[in-house]
Every structure is written in structure tokens, then in C-alpha cells.
Amino acid sequence: MSGDGNSADGHRTFTRSRSHFDDRITADGRDGWPVRAGRYRLVVSRACPWASRAVISRRLLGLEDALSLAVADPVQDDRSWRFTLDPDGRDPVLGIRFLSEAYDRRETGYPGGVSVPAIVDVPSGRLVTNDYQRITLDLATEWTALHRPGAPDLYPAARRAEIDEVMAEVYEDVNNGVYRAGFATRQREYEEACAAVFRRLEALGERLSGQRYLVGDTLTEADIRLFTTLVRFDAVYHGHFKCNRWKLAEHPVLWAYARDLFQTPGFGDTVDFDHIKRHYYQVHTGINPTGIVPLGPDLGGWLTEHHREELGGRPFGDGTPPGPVPPGERVAPRGRPA
């Protein structure tokens, strides 16, 4: 998610930028960035669905000790994502106030937006990658030597073609579709995007009516990518982005599926609804000029019974759930359902 100015949102046609820095961190280091414990820092915003994918993957795979985490303030300014949640407003590991500083060390005068997730090389302070589509796939496949014992296989080789197909549909119509609807500048543009969102959600609901997870009987990357949009749906996309044909909580299958994931270790314990709501409503001034953050919706339902276990499935396959959230990474109480 970009960190440059947002006042133009709602006044120009929305187009998602490609990741400019797409180097990969791999086991063999073929791009010059070998997997090494402690060498890199993952910079995220808990508000951003694209960054949240990486937070969930990192936790499910048990990479907390190998890949440190920096959490930016959900409300950025025109200088990009900032570390005002940390003492003295500096990231304690990188020593910078703004993520843009790591971008500048990689490419001076880079004209594009400053986005999260981003992985920064700690020794040099340089950005390595902001390729949100590739980062989590590499965490699952290139960082295996550093995975925790019992880590799930989130991108199993035998299922990759099906996972890729599902993820492509989810990305086009759901992950990115809510943004096309929310930032539309013309009625027809909005209606087409909104209709596509709900067509895809209905199709996904049908798919999930008879199986617990999107592909196979275990959690995969596809579930992570759908979850990060669903968990934001009623809180921001229904109202703020006008994706309001129905609420997630009004769709029995998708609501149960989303609650099942939320209550699975590694998913809901990474979600901060306070960060999510403040970012969307206070930063997107082009479509919410007052910056008022709504009081609702009631978030208590996320912890209610879902009964999805009746469909079978093994969340972690032959593996095990992740352990407790590290103390320094726990979500503040106001960011959790009451």
C-alpha cells in the first residue's frame, strides 16, 4: 500500500502500481540477497491488507526470530510511512524515521510511491524488495531452512497451479476490486467494480460451502490472501469503499469461513482493527475529507462459534499451530474485538 499523498483518491481513476523493487531473497542468493537469520527487517502497517499477508505468513511459518518486524504508524504523512509508534519516532533497528529513507538508500530520487510490505537489509539500511505478490511466496518456499518445526506448507508444489488460479481471481475481483470500487471516479466505473466484487464473493461462497479451505484440506497462501480483505470488509470496505450490497456478516458461508480463520492462531492475533479503521478513514481524504472515523461496526462477532470444523480439514496439515505471539508484537487491546 502506497505511502504518498492520498488526497487524490476518489478524484482520479485507480490503478495499482507494479512493485518497482522486485529483487528476491532466496536460499541460493541468486539476486545477491541470500536468506540469513537476522539480516533483514520486514516493514509493515497492520492497516494494509498487502502487508498483513506477510505478517500472517511470517507468524504461521515461525520466522519471528529470523526476520524482525517493524510496524509503521497507520496514519502516514506526505513523507511516507513513519515510525512514530517507536520511541523518539525512529525504528529501533534501522534507525530511520520514515520508510522512504530505506528507499532513498536503494535508489536516490525514486519517483514512485513508498509502499509496504517492504523488506530492508539491516546492515546497509537499503530496501531489498517491495514486491507484495512475491514476498510471501518466498517466505514459504525459500526460507524453509529457518521455518519453525511443524510449520505448514503454505504453497505446496502439488497444488500450486490451483492455488495460483484461485489467487489470481481473488486478486482481480476482491483484493484489488474493493479499491477500484472505492476510488472510482465515475458511476459506471464504480458499479462495474462493485458488481465484480460481489460476483466473485458469491462464487467463493459456493466453493467454500462444501470445503473448509480454498484449496485442498489445509491452509494455503490462497486463504491468507482472501482473509486480509474479508477481515476489513465490514469495518471499512462496506462503508468507506461503498461495497455495500451486503455485509460479510450477512453471508453465512463467508462469515463462518472468515471467523474460522480469525480464530486460527496466526490470523486474528495479527489483526488490529483500530489501525485499519484509522488508516482508511483518516488517510483517504479524497473520499473522506472530514477524517471522521466511525464508531461501528460491532466487532464482537469475530469470536463467535463458526462450526467450520464439521467440514473436516487439517488447518496446519501434518504440522502444528504457531506458539504464542511474541510480547513485543501483541496487538493492543483496542485493536481487538471486545
Q: Could you explain the architecture of this structure?
A:
- The chain has a 4-stranded mixed sheet, sandwiched between helices.
- The chain has helices spanning 49-61, 100-106, 132-141, 160-175, 177-182, 187-208, 221-237, 252-262, 273-283; strands at residues 40-44, 68-71, 118-121, 126-129.
- The chain has 338 residues and is mainly α.
- Helix content is 33%, strand content 5%.
- The model has no long low-confidence stretch (mean pLDDT 94).
List the defining traits of the structure above.
single chain; 338 residues; mainly alpha; 4-stranded mixed beta sheet
Structural class: mainly alpha
Average of per-residue pLDDT values: 94
Give the overall shape.
Answer: globular
Number of helices: 9
Spatial order of strands in the largest sheet: 2-1-3-4
Task: Please mark out the parts with pLDDT under 50 across 5 or more consecutive residues, or reply none.
Answer: none
β-sheet strand percentage: 5-15%
Write the layout of secondary structure elements.
Layout: E1 40-44, H1 49-61, E2 68-71, H2 100-106, E3 118-121, E4 126-129, H3 132-141, H4 160-175, H5 177-182, H6 187-208, H7 221-237, H8 252-262, H9 273-283
Parallel strand pairs: 1-2
Antiparallel strand pairs: 1-3, 3-4
Helix pairs in contact: 1-3, 1-7, 4-6, 4-7, 7-8
